[in-house]
Amino acid sequence: MAACSLALLLGLGAQASAAELCTGYGPQTPRDISSPAGTNARLFSPAPPADKLNLCNIHFHKNAEHKGPGFSVFAGPGEQGGYKCGESASLTPAELQDPAGGTGACKGIKPGDTIEVHWVYSSCDVKPGAGLGACSSAQCGNPQLRVETQVFLLVNDPKALDFKSFGYEGNMVGGVHQPKALPTGTGPAVSFAGSTTGPKYTEAKCSALQVTWNVRPQCARVNIATVHDWCKGNVFQEASAHGVRQLVTAKELLAPIK
Fold it and tell me: Where are the beta strands (DSSP E) in the chain?
């Protein structure tokens, strides 16, 4: 069997050879949060806790960029790949019915899909806004960044979580911008040093930004109608799912999880 085919079967996607790995960069993201292995020696100070930082952005990716205990079903290579929640294949017809009939405000998602949501925080004195550009300013060009992460399974079920309860809507706590809440009940977050993500990065093209990550290990069910409601208008100008960066597996590009 060809090496690339074997990699796909193993859920690794297209990975760079040792000779192609980007060098000189700090630890990269996304990763398998069940595996603590990593040999990247570039150190940076962990960002303060989320409640001491300003929320600067909320966005989501179609399928999980990370791989974890609750989201380990490989969805394929490329920017539309990533990982799916383990419950994806066991949803009922009612849970898979699209309440928006394919015309919801959030583009590129439907019931049964997995999304990975990123709440991005910055040490800069900034207000929430569109893209990662909202996380820095002319006066603060090198912020400490933290990302709180939850993977959701989209279902047609009014009893599932309301995504709007994790939105922003001008919420201030202790003098800093904060979401109204963060998800709970999906296990202790796995914390590690990493980078920014997104499909423009690979193992051969790395991100230079330094990010402290908190990734919750289990999926949560969220009512897709409430996600569409959030996409109808938010300060982040988010109305569609982002693509994924394929899993980083080269130990040289990963920090050890302690």
Answer: 54-62, 73-76, 82-84, 114-122, 145-155, 172-173, 176-177, 190-194, 211-215, 220-223
The answer on pLDDT for 68 being more than 90 is yes
Tokens representing 226 are 């409430």
Cα separation, 71 vs 186, whole angstroms: 12
Gap between the Cα atoms of 178 and 71, Å rounded: 27
Query: Model confidence over 109-126: pLDDT tens digits?
Result: 999 999 999 999 999 999
Report the distance separating Cα 186 and Cα 89, nearest Å: 19
Distance CA 27, CA 17 (A): 17
Does an H or E element contain 225, and which?
helix 224-231
Contacts of 187 (CB under 8 A, 6+ apart): 69, 70, 216, 217, 218
Residue 154 predicted with pLDDT over 50: yes
pTM of the model: 0.92
What is d(CA 4, CA 8) in angstroms, rounded to the nearest whole number? 6
The Cα 231–Cα 179 span in angstroms is 15
Q: Which amino acid is at 92?
A: T
Instruction: Judge whether 86 and 130 are in contact, CB under 8 Å.
Output: no
User: Residue 146's closest CA among 2, 237, 258, 46?
Assistant: 46
Q: What is the pLDDT of residues 10-42, one digit of tens each?
A: 444 446 656 689 999 999 999 999 999 999 999
Query: According to the model, what pLDDT value does residue 180 have?
Result: 98
* Cα distance between residue 212 and residue 228, in whole Å: 29
- Residue 120 to residue 154: CA distance in whole angstroms: 21
